[in-house]
């Protein structure tokens, strides 16, 4: 059976929103590493995809990874900061 991230990447090459949603779904199932693979394969990342990935790490209690990704972000918004603070 194909992994969710592979299917999404094949069928939504230009849709950042679909990819971000895919990452969110994957994270909710506790597969944050698979979500990160999907995130890293995205040719263009927007604030939604960055925030979804950070929120996934926070939800999985992986604050070390959330912080590393937070530090790597090219820009942050209120949602980003709130996610890190609540984590």
UniProtKB/TrEMBL annotation:
Lineage of source species: Eukaryota, Viridiplantae, Streptophyta, Embryophyta, Tracheophyta
Keywords: Repeat
PPR repeats: 46-80
Listed PANTHER family: PENTATRICOPEPTIDE REPEAT-CONTAINING PROTEIN
Signal sequence region: none
Name of this protein: Pentatricopeptide repeat-containing protein
Alphabetical list of Pfam families matching this protein: PPR_2
Organism, scientific name: Gossypium arboreum
């Amino acid at each position: 059976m194909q992994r969710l991230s592979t299917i999404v990447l094949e069928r939504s090459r230009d849709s950042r929103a679909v990819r971000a949603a895919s990452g969110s779904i994957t994270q909710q199932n506790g597969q944050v590493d698979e979500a990160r693979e999907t995130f890293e394969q995205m040719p263009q990342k927007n604030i939604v995809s960055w925030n979804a990935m950070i929120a996934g790490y926070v939800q999985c209690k992986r604050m070390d990874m959330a912080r590393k990704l937070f530090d790597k972000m090219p820009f942050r918004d209120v949602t980003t900061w709130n996610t890190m603070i609540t984590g």
